[in-house]
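Office hours follow-up: a student asked to see two folded examples consecutively, so here they are.
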Amino acid sequence: MPDTSPILDHVVIDVRDRMDEAAPVFTGLGFQLTPRGHHTLGSMNHLAMFATDYLELLGFGEGGANRPELTPFPIGLNGLVFKTADADVTHAKAAAAGLPILPVQSFSRPVTLGGASQDARFRTTRLDPNKIAMGRVYFCEHRTPELVWRAEWQAHPNGARAITKIVVATPDPARTADLFRGLFGAAAVATQDGSVVAAAGSARVVLTSPEAVAAEFGDAAAEASGRREYLAALEIAVGSLAETVPHVRDIPGLRQEPQRLVVPARAAFNTTLVFSETG
């Protein structure tokens, strides 16, 4: 598998056919969203861009156009995406390692800049979601990063700067960690405070039990929707919690703690959002 350490590219919150509702919700939480994009695959999205990673709201296209791989998943945080410089190389290495990797897929979406339309182009290779319980795990090669990472889209009213943690609920963290060992090698995975942690650049993927998720987040936790293993929470670094509070303080069930704010999943499309200050 990849010779370099894993680096998070983005995470995906599925909103299904509710994009017109989801976009104002996340704007209300203080994120600046990119204009709506339309993939050649049939889906639509809005992005909250940070310095090196981003949050994607992904929904069905207009007129009900759909991507079949999205259909089995409920609303919520379902996509965990790592960077790759070459999707073909990543696919070949994953296949050689015996991982359930799917063929490389190419697609694009138009981006309008200065009144002119250009195509943002991507190549991805995905682990088979029928064989990976936690959700859609894949690698993304950006062919046109200059059309995605733009300074004018990276300033957020809530002060959001980067994704720092993705929490995965799993009944057997040690077993689930085998996936990350297979993808990135044993050195990328460590045990910490009873959980298993996979480093992904400046972010961490934390594998922990559903009981631990429930104990930490209580009624702010995401609905499992019948799943034994799922992406449960997302932590985002902000410059100052004081800057974030005005955007979330009226949310029912908001938890204000000394070093973080916890937005309940029911207020963010079944995704527990944690805002914490950068060091």
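And the second, which I mentioned at the end of office hours:
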Amino acid sequence: MKVFSPGLAVTTAMTYALLFAAAPQAFGQTGFFGAYDPRLQEVLWNDAVGLQQNGNHQEAIEKLKRAAHLSRINDGLDAKSQLPFVRAEIASHRALNQFTAADERHAYLSRIEARAIPSGPEKITALLRQAEWHQFALLEDIDEDEEATARMGKAWNFYRRALNESIATYGEDSAELLPALEGMVRAQYLLAGHRGIGASMPGRMERERRDFAAGKSTFKRGLSVLVAMQQLNRDRLSVTREIQAQDLIRIADWAWWTGNRNYALNFYNTALALANGESLEPVANETSPLTEVDASLDPEATASDSNMSETDTGEDAATAQPLNAETQHVNAEIEQEPTDNTPIEEAVNTPVNPDYPTFRILETPVALPAIAGFGPVLDIKTSESEEGDLVVSFNISPTGKVVNIERVQLPVTTGPRGPERVIRRLRKTRFRPAFLNGEPVESDTITWTFEPKHWAMPASTHSETST
């Protein structure tokens, strides 16, 4: 028969207390709880957040995996409580450039989100996060060619589903639709860039050889989304004329970037008319512009939808319906061949309305694509130049091309990669030109500075300054 000894209990407690005081990290905070105590999740979460803040992402990943495992044990395999842990784990994988692992965890996350978040604002946010991951993966070029093509469809599909959910949650007259529409615009830039259509894109995305037959249809698909945004803002949200002008500029930028110069000039000039206080009459459009935004507009997205499994999207393909299943074609003004006479709005030949404010636009060149959610094609140094930096000056022609490049400071490198690769990419970048009196003109001289991180290998560099 065992006899309880108070003295022994006190001695044992004191021993553990002394051990923990001497080596708290070795003993661990989790030692206070049982192996599967749900309170461990919060302890592990706090530890992981601290590790992430200190840059110890690999250790954070292990703690987050354990926290998610405990969540599944305590709350079920599809537990919503595991979502923050999985998302934080993905963030650490991305910080370590472990993109394959991040992709696998995103696929798992998507399945759990589909089951744990049936609808509403939280589901919209989850869909947008998934789409933005696929956008990031495309720009980072982490896939083989066939996988990249499939990922194009996934990016489009997640943005489209986010739009569908936004409409179901907020209705067709809400500004809450804009994040999904903006994502769909980025998806069209990604698709065009992947097909070799348009100018340089940010990131390292590989380009196929340009398919000229696909160029026109690609332009129209992107245009339909941009027009939907423009008409939503103008007709339903009654935004200011400044925002209306920016919407028209965004449409013009898409046309300019894809090489549809005359079409772009119409939109730029319409935006200038708004800025000059002119009255504009919208073209009649009896149907909602959102009915034009349909997955059938993108053959790659349609193919992806038809083969998409629960592993890819978190829900069956049958539930991922087009925005309007009855839409058979886009609005006639979009379907017609782009010409010089097909703007969304046309300036009326009447005097300037004094009730309309005037404002200044299109006075300086802008590198394209100028889209929220995309970084710049080239990362420009904003601080003072240093020895080892590349410094170039140039002008932007009326057609938006870089001309008159001068190497103000050209670093000399001993490695196989040099600053000329930055200059080559600069030449491929398409700019929105500056406008004067309604016409694009050559810009004043622009000077940009680039750091060695754009080209340098682990080797010494020195600079030569032009005379």
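Two things to take away from it. The chain is about 50% helix and 10% strand. Residues 8 and 238 are 78 Å apart (CA to CA).
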